[in-house]
């Protein structure tokens, strides 16, 4: 079954990747089950933001606190590949926890979704839902 992604989320991810180019954008995917309904953009605190990303830990802590208080759940993460492809890089594969999180990767004006697992990343089909 495809993941459902709000059209607002798609627009926001593409705009954020474009506005932060040539640095990688990054943040948190929020929603419920396999429905991504919003995002929490984060500062990329990696010392080399043009080729790597590291989500500001406070943004992640805040997202989990909001989820515990009845807000949307943390479903996964997103980041851009400003000069790359919309698929997991070697660094992504080496550092992602095999916890079933959804990963969105933005590159060249397109978004792909992936699920991290024991066998690495698995491509996820998705449908764009109305606002």
Automatic annotation (TrEMBL):
Pfam families: Prok-JAB. The keyword Metal-binding applies. InterPro entries: JAB_dom_prok, JAMM/MPN+_dom, MPN, VirAsm_ModProt. Keywords: Hydrolase, Metal-binding, Metalloprotease, Protease, Zinc. SUPFAM superfamilies: JAB1/MPN domain (SSF102712). It comes from the Bacteria. SMART domains: JAB_MPN (SM00232). Residues 3-131 form the MPN domain. This is M67 family metallopeptidase. It comes from Qipengyuania qiaonensis.
């Amino acid at each position: 079954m495809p993941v459902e992604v709000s059209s607002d989320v798609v627009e926001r991810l593409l705009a954020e990747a474009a506005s932060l180019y040539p640095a990688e954008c990054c943040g948190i995917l929020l929603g419920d089950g396999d429905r991504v309904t919003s995002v929490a953009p984060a500062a990329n605190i990696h010392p080399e933001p043009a080729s790597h990303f590291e989500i500001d830990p406070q943004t992640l802590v805040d997202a989990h606190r909001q989820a515990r208080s009845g807000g949307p759940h943390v479903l996964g993460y997103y980041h851009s590949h400003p000069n790359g492809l919309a698929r997991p890089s070697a660094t992504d594969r080496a550092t992602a926890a095999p916890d079933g999180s959804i990963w969105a990767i933005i590159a060249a004006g397109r978004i792909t979704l992936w699920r991290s697992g024991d066998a690495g990343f698995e491509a996820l089909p998705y449908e764009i839902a109305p606002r």
